Amino acid sequence: MATAQLPEQRTLTTLHTVVLATEVLSQAGIPRDLLLEGSGIAEADLRTAEKLVTHAQELRVFANALQYYRDPSLGLYLGLRMHVSAYGILGYSMLASRTLRDALQLALAYPDLLGTYFRLALQDHGDEVWLSAEGYRYAPELTVFNTELCLTSLLTVVRDLLGESVRPRRLLLAYRPPLHAHTYAERLGCPVEFGAPTSALCFGPALLDRPLPLADPVSCHNGLQQCQRQSAELSNRGDVLELIRRHLASHLQECRSLDAVARHLHRSSRTLRRHLQQHNTSYQQVLDEVRYDKARQLLKDTDLPIYLIAEQLGYSETASFRHAFQRWSGYSPSLYRG
User: Fold this and answer.
1) CATH code, domain carrying 288
2) Quick check: pTM over 0.90?
3) Residue 56, Cβ neighbours under 10 Å: how many?
4) Which helix H or strand E contains 173, and what residues bound it?
5) What is residue 10's predicted lDDT score, i.e. its pLDDT?
6) Which of 9, 37, 70 is the last residue of a domain?
7) pLDDT tens digits for 266-310?
8) For residues 95 and 157, what is the distance between their CA atoms, to the nearest angstrom?
9) What is the percent of the chain with per-residue pLDDT over 90, rounded to a whole number?
C-alpha cells in the first residue's frame, strides 16, 4: 500500500519564493546548490517560470537557508525583500486595483497564487483592521520563520502598492518572543505584541481605503481573468480529488467505500476512480491521507483517548488505527502525542 502523503507533499505552488530566497542568499555568499540540497529542485528549474513545486520542497529550501545563513531573523530579512513584482500576474493585478483594500481582497481570493501556508483574512476590530495569518499546520520547527516571512512580505506588498514606507500600528504574533525578538521593532518600525490570540498586521481603517497610485480598471480586469486561468491551471484537474478529500474529512465515520462517496457526491464510482487514476492515487490512499491529517490534529490539539480518535476516523477497532498510524508516521499514536 502506498504511504499516506502529508499536505505539504501534495500541495503545489509556484517557485517565486524559492527564487527569491536563493537569489538573496547567493548574494550573501551561500551557493545555490546548498540551498536546494535535498529539495529535488535543480538550479535550472529556477529559470523556468511555469515550474511548480510542492510545499514540502519549498520547506526543505527554507530549512537549508536557516541552516546555512545562521541568522534566526532570516524570515524578516527575506520578507522585506519580497516585493509585489515577485507574484507575477497577481502582483500586477494588485497594483492596478482601485484601493489598498481591493488589492488585498484580490490577493486573499487567490491564496494558491500567493503560495501562503496560512489562512489569510482582513478582519475589522473597532478602530483597527487586522491582516491576519492563521491555520499554519506544516513543519513546526519553521513556524516562526514562516510567520515572519508571511507577515513581512505582506507589509512589503502594502508598501509597494501605496508607493510609500507605511508602518503598521502594531504587529501581533501568536508565539512567545524568540531570541531575536529585539529585531522586530527596529526592522518593522512598529510596536510588537507576542503571545497574541492571532498573528496579524494592524492598520487604521482609513489606510485600506486609500486609492492606489497605479490603479487602472481595465488592466485590473484583464489581470483578474489571467489570475483565474492561472489558478485553474495550478489546480491541475485536482478539483474532483480535493472534493473527495473535503467530503471524507467531514464524513470519516460513514465513508467506508468509494461507492458511498460517489453516492454522496452524485457522481459515478467509475468517474471518481478515473480521476484518482489520473493523479496516480487510489481511494484507499486518499482515505489514509485524510485520516492521517485528522489523526495528527486530534492527537496534538485534543486530549481525546486513542479509542475515541479511532472511532472518529472510522475504525471499528482501536488496534487497526494504531497499526495504520504506525505505518504512516513511524510512531505509535501515544508516542506521537508525546
Assistant:
1) 1.10.10.60
2) no
3) 18
4) strand 170-173
5) 57
6) 70
7) 788 888 888 887 666 788 888 888 888 889 889 988 889 999 999
8) 9
9) 55
